[in-house]
Amino acid sequence: MPRLRTRLGLKDLLGAVRARLGIARNQYKVNPGLYCTGTPGPRSPVLATANYKLSFDALRKELADIDAWVLVVDTRGINVWCAAGKGTFSADEVAYQAGRARLAEIVSHRELILPQFAATGVASQKLREKCGFRGIFGPLRAADIAKFLKDGKKADETMRTVTFTLGERLVLVPVEIALIWKPFVLVTLSLFVLSGIGPGFYSLDAALGRGMTAAGATVLAILAGALAAPALLPWLPGRQFWLKGVQTGGAAGFAYLFFFPTGVSPAGNAGLWLWMAAAASYMAMNFTGATPYTSLSGVEQEMRKGLPVQIGGALLALVLWIAAPFIGW
Amino acid sequence: MKDFRYIDGAALLRLDEDACIGCGNCTVVCPHRVFALRGKKAGIVDHDGCMECGACALNCPAGAIVVNPDEGCGCAALIINGWLSKALKRKTKVCGGC
Q1: What is the ipTM of this complex?
Q2: Which of A48, A205, A263, A326 is the most buried (most CB within 10 A)?
Q3: A22 and A174 in contact (C-beta within 8 Å)?
Q4: Chain A stretch 114-133, residues whose beta carbon is closer than 8 A to a beta carbon of chain B
């Protein structure tokens, strides 16, 4: 039986940083199966978790001085909540791993403590039918597991309520930006090419000069939508994310035009501003996928309003940007 | 969660109080504390707090709860993919990078 260390080392920290940056995040896994902490016996609690290493680490570091069995189920390296949502953290999978580990022979009781977030994928009544173990939903956060066990497997309202603190929001930002990397390169290259179009056939100088201006605007817009909007989330007026992004993107647009001598005409400036507002709006809207409180119905509802505005804004920005050198203002 | 509220009236969530057996599972699993037991029946006390995670419906032994069954974590990129796939009648993968 592999005994887990309950203190995270430098390697775990570096691994966490890499995963948070989106580097080989899909391969950050541990082997499914049964592990233990301390010296558990047949009456020690069994805690289930996902095989995403960040989830696994979050749990084991809370288990210092606790004798427990840890059942790692195969969620294909996805965290507890997302895996439950996708159906990979399911009653079938938990029962399968419990059977494979011969859990019923190792412990005398028939209780399996699941993270509360697993409830989206695990039907507790079905788990009992499948493997004889009764699923008990523990706290949402691994940080509360010691208190949960100490209090006789009871979780209070705070332990059962999801939060979305500034830190919890900011830690999601790098992956949001990493996922936009490819479209960003494509868009920026196109912007450089388009920026060279002008009355004098084609200008490489303009392609570089105006292209840099447009690329800078794009970088700033991404930061406005994917960093500023999540950071300022509770303070930005309104509830729809695309509108929050218009605010941060619009403000970033004004700042860019004001502080950087862009050297482009008023039409070009208007195009830049529109582009920044539209791009930031999209990035902010995409952040709905990372929050713990937006419903799919709500997101679809706001996208039907936000997407046409974003596409319209971006197209108008494009027209203004290309037309600017021809009309001379 | 009281600090963050999303669009009112958007979430698709229904509880059939006649079918409810009062086991209280929904009050346990909901990460937004949408349900509360009133006597021997569960009730929805914060409909607009619902994010449609589906934990309550899955863990309701009486099948008394219905939540929007569409899959997806609600990121725009995935929803656009889903819409495109529907329009082009293609199969889509469930999730992108999240």
Answers
A1: 0.91
A2: A48
A3: yes
A4: 116-117, 119-125
